[in-house]
Every structure is written in structure tokens, then in C-alpha cells.
Amino acid sequence: MNLLWIAIGGALGALARYGVGGFVQTRMNAIFPYGTLVVNLSGCLIMGIVTGLITDQVLVSPMIRYLVPIGFIGAFTTFSTFELETYRAIESGAWLIGATYAAISVFVGFFAIWLGFAIARRLV
Question: Most buried of 21, 39, 46, 66 (most Cβ within 10 A)?
């Protein structure tokens, strides 16, 4: 049953990402990716609120735990999960782990995108 709640939340989150990102981007009419930026930052805010409430023992149904943070927010933006993991590492005192994770994610992730494009161009 948990997978069903994740799937429902994920579908809604993906649709919300498409809708919010597209709405913002068309209104801004700019090259800068404002739509994605708004999705990522609002997703981080929502993830912080929801996870903070769940962590602080606010009584919520197990269904909500799968539906909202894992399903909806996870599909809305994986950036929020990345930020939450970084925050948890730093909050627990593991500054080096948090900083290393953030740096690797950003810089190696960028390199992986570049490499993926290079491979795709070689294949075509």
C-alpha cells in the first residue's frame, strides 16, 4: 500500500512541477530558468516544513509520510531531498560529510551531465 501512496504523490508532484515551472517561466519570459528555480526553492521550503513537523512528532498518518515528502515533494523536486540530506548531515555535526556531499553533487553532477552529452554526441 505504501508504494501506491508514493505513486499517487509522485504523479501529483510531477504534474505540479510541470505546472508551476511552466507557469513561472512563461510569465518571466527570460532565458534564466526561473521556473525551475521557483520549483526547487519552494520544494525545499515545503520539505523543511513537512519533515520538520514529522520529525517533531506531530501525529500524521503513515500514509501522509509516503504521500507527501517521498511521493509529492520527491517528484516535485529532487533538489529538496538533496538539500534535506545536506542539512541533516550538517545539523548532526558532520560538516565535512555535508560539505563533501554538496560539492560532489554539484560539481560531479555537472561533469556527469557534460559527459552524458559528450557520449550522446559520439553516438549520433
Answer: 39
C-alpha grid cell, residue 5? 501512496
Distance CA 92, CA 41 (A): 23
d(CA 114, CA 94): 30
3-state secondary structure of 77: coil
pLDDT in tens, 93-118: 999 999 999 999 999 989 988 998 88
Does 117 map to a domain?
A: no
Q: How many domains does the chain have?
A: 1
Q: Tell the residue number behind the cell numbers 513561472, with chain if given.
A: 24
Residue 91: left if φ>0, alpha if ψ -120 to 50, beta else—which one? alpha
Full domain range(s) for residue 72: 2-76
Return the residue matching grid coordinates 534535506. Answer: 84
Residue 118 lies in a domain: no
Q: Are 77 and 68 in contact (CB under 8 A)?
A: no
Owner of C-alpha cell 541533516: 88
Whether residue 49 lies inside any domain: the answer is yes
In a domain, 87, yes or no: no
**What's the one-letter identity of residue 18?**
Y
